Structure formats: structure tokens, C-alpha cells
Fold this sequence. Notes:
Elements: H1 2-25, H2 30-49, H3 54-81, H4 86-94, H5 97-118, H6 120-126, H7 135-163, H8 183-191, H9 194-198, H10 210-222, H11 225-236, H12 238-246
Amino acid sequence: MNELLISGLLLIVAVMLGWIWQVYSKNAGIADVIWSYGVGLSAVFYAVAGEGALLPRLLVGIIAGLWFARLGTHVLLRVLREEEDGRYRAIREHYSATGINFFHFVFFLGQALAAWIFALPMWVIAQNPTAGFSASVCLALGIIVIAFFGEAIADRQLAKFRDDPKNRGKTCRVGLWRYSRHPNYFFEWLHWFAYPLLALGAPYGIYVWFAPMAMFFFLYYITGIPYTERQAVRTRGDDYIQYQRTTSAFIPWRPRV
């Protein structure tokens, strides 16, 4: 249990450094970077310090470490190269200079708490005494492969579309984005189903099934789709409204006529 306390304290230190960085850079997108790296590094730490069998510890350390390293690096490069994300920019415009710093102080602390909570499934897996490969482990690995390449492809397709000056102000309908308005969110959610499978046989393993449910709730109703869609309508207007009418919001599906 000591590793839970240590990871929580380290996450708080990380988000406070991120908060100081955003005060001077005026870019709060660093919070998303810290969240991603925080969950991944916590998973690696739990894998090393856990008391479970070697196989589940090794798998959760590699899977979560690589997943969140890729996600965090992708977001970090975007934060360093582009202006502040529209979600955070809209919030900044709503507050005074003093008010926005206090808001972000509370928000960044919330990010530390969220990262700690979403890393708890990795801690449970690291206590799993089940030593051998099983059908559930193979299924988890299959889910990870599909989700990893799906999200990487979606991110690449969107980045290539946005890099073309001719597409400025337009909505990406290329590749996976033709079938879902948020395929990156979908594959992010899909990958969380691997963790309950890896936690089978672990103490408290049944509770890990709440992880994909919680991630769906956050992505679909709170931090993901609602903010992204409002910003897209503000910047792309009728083009995005038409995209909403024809394209699935989350699960990839054939476009509507």
C-alpha cells in the first residue's frame, strides 16, 4: 500500500510543476501531458513494486507504460507546436488573470487525483498472483494491439489533415474519421477493457471493471466529447454540424446519408 501513497505524492509534485509552467506559458494543455505520463509512470512503478506474480506485473508495466508514453508524447508535441487547445482557451477567456490561475491550480490538483484513480487498476494487476498465460490474458493482448494501432492511426490521420493549409477551417473526414467523430477516444476507451482481463484472479480484481465504465463516462459526458464538440462548432460552424448529422459520435459506424 505504500506505493499508492508514494505515487500520489509524486503526482502532486508533477502537477504543481505543470501549473507553474502554464502560468508563464499560458498553455494549460500541459495538464493532459502530465495526466498521461502520470498514469503510465505509476503503472511502471506499481509493476516494479508489486507483490504479484511476474507475468501480470510485467504485462501491466509494458502495456500501460507504452500506451501512456505514446499518448503523452503525442499530446506534448501538440502542446509545444500549437497554440493552447480551444477548450482551455475558452476557459482562460472567461476568467481574469488572477481567477484563471486559481482555477487552474484546483484543476491541476484534480488532474493529479484523476491520474491516481485511473492508475489504481494497474496497482490491482500488480498484486495478481496468477502466474501463467490464459485465455483472458490473450484476449487482453488482442484488445491492446487493436486499440494501440487504432488510436495511433487515427491520431496520424488527423495530424496529416491538420498540417495541410488547404484544410484550415475544415472537418477531417479521412480514414477512421469518416466513421467516427472521435475514433481516438473510442480506441482509448477500448484499451481499458484489457485491464479487467489482466486483473482476473487478483484481490479486488472485480472492481477493475469500473475502469472502462468510468472512462466512457468521462470521455462521452465530461472531459472529452462535449468540450471538443462545442469548440468544433464554434470554429467550423455548419461544416461540423453537418458532420454531426452524418457521423457516429463515438463507436465507428457507417456514415448516415
